[in-house]
């Protein structure tokens, strides 16, 4: 199996979603039913490792994730462009460990989430924009991944009037973990903020 550069040696790298054994037949059916309202992601756009990104150590002492890792663009990415899938353990949302910083909702109605705390792909290294730049340059969302024939979480370049020119080659890819994530972290840590995480199963952004 090919792994991206700077991937932790002892950490499982996923090339496809990992389904938990507790998923019900109804939840599996929901995962494998193509929704009408989501983007279709061709197999060529979900290659692993992703050609759009690379994992890089954070050496800037002022960066909230200094001493850890971030995800950076390997090429110019236009506003609204799909970047990569966010892979992890796809599980029933109710059994989620609330303390996981890498757990994102996949389908709220079906009660399915994806957690990259113990295995995943490059998507787990996306940092929050706070303390790095004025706003996020990327967003989480859901799409239909033709490669695996199921609904998956993905990362897109931010669009809209504030998107600018997109993400330039060499720029760090930054999302918003959502206010709910930081509120939970401040409560859990007595007021301190943690620099690495995920959407903590709150709504995107």
From TrEMBL:
Domain of life the protein comes from: Eukaryota
Domain SET, by residue range, is 51-178
Which InterPro entries does the annotation name?
SET_dom (IPR001214), SET_dom_sf (IPR046341)
Name of this chain's protein: SET domain-containing protein
What species is this protein from? Tolypocladium ophioglossoides (strain CBS 100239) (Snaketongue truffleclub)
